[in-house]
Amino acid sequence: MISAPDVVAFTREEELEDELCSEPPLPEEYSVPLFPFASHGANPWAKVAGSKFTRDFILISEFSEQVGPQPLLTIPDDAKVSGTFDLNYFSLRIMSVDYQASFVGHPPGSAYPKLNFVEDSKVVLGDSKEGAFAYVHHLTLYDLEARGFVRPFCMAYISADEHKIMQQFQELSAEFSKASECLKTGNRKAFANELEKKLKDLDYTRTVLHNETEIQKKANDKGYYTTQAIEKANELASVEKSIIEHQDLLKQIRSYPYRKLKESEFHPYEPEAALDPAETGCDQDLSTSDQAEPSPTHLYSHAPSYTPKLIKAKSAKCFDKKLKTLEELCDIYFFTQTLDQLHQIERTFRGDVCYLLTDQISRALLKQQTVTNFLFEDVSFLDEKPPEKQYRGCQELSQDAVDRKCSEESPAPKVVISLGSYKSSVESVPIKMEQELEDTNEPKMSESVTFEPQENLDYLDADIKGSISSGESIEVLGTEKSTAGLPKSESQGSLPVSPSPQAGRSRVGSRRTVSEDSIEVLSTCPSESLIPEDFKASYPSAINEEPYLDDDEDGGLRFTPRLNPGDADEREDLSQQESLAQVDSACCIGKESPNFLEAELGQKPCDEEGVVRIPPQPSRPAEQGLRGTFGGFASHDGISGGLLPCELDSRYPLGSRELSKSSLDEYSDSTSYMSSAASTCSDRTPSPAHPTCQGSERHKKKAGQNALRFIRQYPFAHPAIYSLLSGRTLVVLGEEENIVKKLVTALSIFVPNCGVYTKPVKHWVTSPLHVVDFQKWKLIGLQRTVSPAGVNVLHALSRYSRYISILDADSKTLRCPLYKGTVVSRLADHRTQIKRGSTYYMHVQSILTQLCSKAFLFTFCHHLHLPINEREPEESVAKRRMNFLKLQLGLANEDIKIVQYLAELLKLRYIQEPGQGGNPVLRFDYVPSFLYKI
Amino acid sequence: MSALCPPPSPAVAKTEISLNGESPLLAATFAYWDNILGPRVRHIWAPKTEQVLLSDGEITFLANHTLNGEILRNAESGAIDVKFFVLAEKRVIIVSLIFDGNWNGDRSTYGLSIILPQSELGFYLPLHRVCVDRLTHIIRKGRIWMHKERQEHFQKIVLEGTERMEDQGQSIIPMLTGEVIPVMELLSSMKSHSVPEEIDISDTVLNDDDIGDSCHEGFLLNAISSHLQTCGCSVVVGSSAEKVNKIVRTLCLFLTPSERKCSRLCRNESSFKYESGLFVQGLLKDATGSFVLPFRQVMYAPYPTTHIDVDVNTVKQMPPCHEHIYNQRRYMRSELTAFWRANSDEEMSQDHIIHTDESFTPDLNVFQDILHRDTLVKAFLDQIFHLKPGLSLRSTFLAQFLLVLHRKALTLIKYIEDDTQKGKKPFKSLRSLKTDLDLTAEGDLNIIMALAEKIKPGLHSFIFGRPFYTSVQERDMLMTF
């Protein structure tokens, strides 16, 4: 209800206007603009355009005791940035207030000058006429020659956007406080050094004066003191007093850390990156000063020798002396660090505040949805430790450090979960079951690839031959370990590959049954009806494979987990988990447990109906108990194809399986498996989706631009994108690397991530593809050449053409399944008016987030996957699931498959242990392909 | 709060204010720049407390400092600049509004400041805009008052031939007092009843087993949808504080943590006053089952408001941002013009202005039914209740929903930015925008635009303003015939 006095009023504006006309109007300065955002050509972006400087910058100013307020430097140090903006005037404005009114000098009742450790002040102010608003951070540095020993400075972040300063106040304050603390630490160090030198000078002067006095005394035989002698004596006394004063000052500056550390709000500066002392010229006490200044003795100890000078009793006049520069006032290391920090602040906060705000909000929201982040998000920035650093650091580690690092950072060997029994909602038949769950932390380098029964292959072979152009296609992708309890096939077997070439070879030779041929055989199956019972579509009836061979039995070299002392329980857990894994877990969670984090490691996260019941947790602590190590690794140090340290980290793109393969590549040349493995590993160019560049804005922009071009140029963009979103590998074939890579970059934004950080994208491959590649990569750029080698490439490609989608960049054709949904058309409308790649990238991100949300709902919606009662048939549950997808999620046709695929990835990822970069399921679908042409 | 402050001279007038709850505000001051003596404090307002945290001398010292450097003031005509100090040495934060005005025949610089302990920085920052907006408006009125006083003062001098220095400018203090006290009360109420930064979803409607358990499905849909369409600004009224607060918390789930800290729960015993500028506030109806909503203050809120009555399950909303801002500005200009026209202190009193000037309510029908339906919130509500409550599933799903909204909002801003070359050209392709960004449902567009408006102020006016203003002008023109 609106208040009565207000209700009474009613519009009678015409009368009002008449009355107003007869009286002097309200002066504009007392009024408010009627159109705050629409007058005078104003627009939401106009305020920045109206200022005299081109973009935000940082200004450091000083209140000089000689010339008053003066600007010292700007960051960035480019005159174009500040433009015509009057830095002198603005320095005067921001430095004209003495906020640090604390007493410095001789306080009443104190014999000696007292240093006052003044705390920084922060002020936000502006100059509305100039359109400049600033966050100003006032600080005081110490200078022995300055008045009261203090030099007031300020660092100001200047922006044309007033709201930005206040909205980011806390962030700016925190960052500038760090910079200030760094500068002040360096200044205290320099000040202490200066004091020490001064004390040495004074000491030397005193000695000289003392000697002179003694000489005079001896020379004096008149029995009274001459004027000269008295002057000398006074001078000596003055020097002695000065020594005491300076000693007191030194004591005060040294006492700073202890005094300040007691205060709760004091945050000593801790440089993040250790700097090479040789480069910075920093002496050895840096390390101590870096660590919260633990020892004043160390902090202020000064190694370089100093030759004391004789100093005059009278100091120079105030205006005669030259004041120290900011650089001279501060230890060079800390000064450099401060400048770096300020540059970082400038980089962080420049630009439109709406992006900053959204970024902050998005980060907070992404942290709440860790379960789905891996699919399409660049989660590296959410980590405390940037992956780039980890990567670099990892490379630099020595072999010893590798062991240590892997044992420290990589998750422990995890539960061997049988995924073979995973119930898929997609019509897929897992044909190649492999144990991927051996974590990289347990760097066994095992290649536990299993293959299909030869007899089955033979049996199927006949039907498929010559049917490549038929409409039926089989998608073959990676799978996980098969289910227990299913009929075993003799020819199936896990294939742990030894890092030893010989062992590997013999292992491969003895265990390998089929490599690519197996696919060929499978592809002969023209329809589902011809598939043997074991091959039929749902995971519970998936192909069986041999149980995971025991290391001791197979004779292959495998890495065994080294358990930490006292980890017997955990070892037991592991065995329990393994035994659990042998049971058909069926992606089931037994009990709904809000106390999931307290659950035992071996607890199954799914129940027997394939339902994930346990809610997603923001984060699951990495298992620390089991530490993997390289059992027997030392003996293979000489292997030239040995693992790079970074490759041993499970978070990096190369999983253990791939690693083992790459190491084998170097030594094998005979087996078909090896040759096929070599095909993918020949190109070691890192994927652009690697964390080092994944998060970069430039990459996003470029990918967005390419994607936008792609959807406009290729009318069959929809089925191509659908292929990627539904987990079907897309091969971009072309002669020119540049064109292919561009297409791959464009399409990469639609590829759901399967691992932890890395998208399964291979930009450029020159050698024939192998079936394993389709498990690892969902988007592959493949070279087409006319050479004999190129024929092999094409031959291999045609062999798998039923299971993959092929985009021919040269002939501009696409061969892939039909798409009739609506999601992709929203995602990639060729008529879109979006103009920039970065905008399109953002649009794609928001649609993909919606898809993730649907997949999340479908995955964790408990009643969808459970029978209402024991007698409810599976068909009924499946129908319910389908209805949910159609009615509740509003999905139609192929869109359902997209969500189902994403849901599968979510489920797989969720039931895997954290940090385990599992590859996607290798599977095949019976979906007819179509050929699209421009 | 150092004791090393110069003694004040002479004594400064002070108003002590009794507040019901704890006051985070230490003091408010009104200072001016004296051309001879420099910064001088005219008046101090301080909460009446047993423990004096800041002496008058210290308050004066700090208030004087707020005007330091203002001799260099270089502001646009009529500008009211905001200065914000965090003085660690004094353990205080000061918010100062600096403005030029005519008083005592001289044009001078003035500063109205509020002082808080530094420990309240985190508490204060989310409320900064609310406080500044309210103090800014009272300064606008105060400036007119000061100007008129000067005229009256000269007239008196001419008529009486005497000059009474002590009378000059005193009457602005009661006017400032009229806003300083409510600001103190607001901060006090926020101290005790602000919505926490983190909300447990189990305290909200979204924890119900099914969508209709706590409140009617359609009502909840309307409430959340309208709440999002009005930039997250809502008033929830009802007879039961518990019921009101549940809806308040539910709506706050859709806000950022900072915005939540600028929202207020309903008090059990008696209702708070409506406070302009809060995002969500719960208000208790009186014994007669009604709550009086002050029109002027609702109009002065930075965003349009959704009015939700949990007793009768009604949801009403104000027009979108550009219309709201337009109405707000017209209202403000009318009010200031009325002040300018008033001839006596009596005429200038707040109530008198409202009662006599009928032009203050350009359109009484500010709260309307929700015109545009959305698909975003509807789908969200249809889906979230499928997830099992009591776990973190719904929180995750909510976070995904909010992420989608924020990403769409940023995409929309970028789309318009690209299309108009950062506002250099008018935006003409709204239809394309809707299609391209999948915002064809009008309600969806409103929600995303409202979110975008918060991070890019002025977007509504830029997109919809021109045709709206034109239509208003045409309407006005037609009404003259």
The helix content of chain A, as a percent range, equals: 40-55%
Beta-strand portion of chain B reads 15-25%
Contiguous helical run count of chain B? 15
The rounded distance between the terminal residues' Cα atoms of chain B is 65 Å
- Strand line-up across the major sheet of chain A: 12-13-11-14-15-17
Greatest chain-chain interface?
A-B, 121 and 118 residues
Number of helices in the DSSP assignment of chain A: 35
Radius of gyration of chain B, in Å, reads 24 Å
Residues in helices of chain B, as a percent range: 40-55%
Largest sheet of chain B: 6 strands, mixed
Q: What is the straight-line distance between the termini of chain A?
A: 63 Å
Structural class of chain A: alpha+beta
Please give the order of strands in the largest beta sheet of chain B: 1-3-2-6-5-4
Shape descriptor of chain B reads: globular
> Strand content of the residues of chain A, in percent?
5-15%
Helix-strand makeup class of chain B: alpha/beta
**Main beta-sheet annotation of chain A:** 6 strands, mixed
Mean pLDDT of chain B: 86
